[in-house]
Amino acid sequence: MSVRYLNVDCILRSDKSLSLLLSHLKEDIFVLWDESFESIFSVGFEPNLLDSSSPEEDFLEFLRLFDGLPADLRRLLNDCNERVLDIGFEGGSSGESMNVSIGTSVIARLSQYGFSIGIRIYPASDSEPDLPIIEQTREH
Fold first, then answer.
1. First to last CA, the chain
2. What are phi and psi of 125, to 5 degrees?
3. Contact 14, 79 (CB under 8 A)
4. What pLDDT score was predicted for residue 95?
5. Dihedral-angle region of residue 62 (phi above 0 means left; psi in -120 to 50 means alpha; beta otherwise)
6. With a cut of 50, which residues of the chain have pLDDT below it?
């Protein structure tokens, strides 16, 4: 199995509720969690892109969403104590590498929002279907 790009999760932590932000974005995101503990609010979500092929594609979707926020929600985003875009990969067992690059203009735009970039590598899944073994015979 080859290394596989999965998606990008947006992780936000704040001392203010983020429910208005999630509500505003609800049509464009899938919420992974929305928790609070001792006045710290934590949310994780990913864009509703189907078959996204690269982190840059997901980053551009997040930027589209953030650029379209009304001023009060943009302030809420900017006031978060932690802003991470976490790139997920599934590790492979094939020995092949995977190269991914993110353009400097995208990185510059993400930095304007104060985002850091995380990289998460998940173990290779054992759920890949077993392929039948085809016996080849030689006729003499």
1. 35
2. -80, 140
3. yes
4. 76
5. alpha
6. 129-140
